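User: Can you help me understand a structure? I only have the sequence.
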Amino acid sequence: MRYVVHRRFRETALCGYVNVPAGTVAEKRGDMLFCGGRAMCLADSENGHRYFARDDDGNGLRRGRLTRAIMDELAKPGAMRQKRWDKVWADPLCWPFKRADWEDRWLWNDAFFRADIGTLQHIAALVGAKGG
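Assistant: Let's start by predicting it. Here is the structure, written out as tokens:
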């Protein structure tokens, strides 16, 4: 499956330190993401979610921007923070993207980072995220 680096990946990868620019095409083989034949990380790892996005539909860069914008908006402190989270908890479209192993806390599961663009746009609008 095709993935794309949606945010510069300047970290220690499985193959060692890398500096991979945004827009670089990656490939998922099994559970691993590869760039230029070099193993980067597990697709469902924190680095996999932070820097890579599914791109089999040509929307990888957009998908990455949307997931990041949603997470950044929900992380903002202030009086509206709880109201944004309340909207997520109350919206049935969001429920499939909550990790089931955390009953009292919302953590995004791997499906969120692979979601279709329409769903991500809905969630972004729900929480007031910009940048998608």
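Now, to help you interpret it: Residues 1-56 form one domain. The mean pLDDT is 95. Let me know which part you'd like to focus on.
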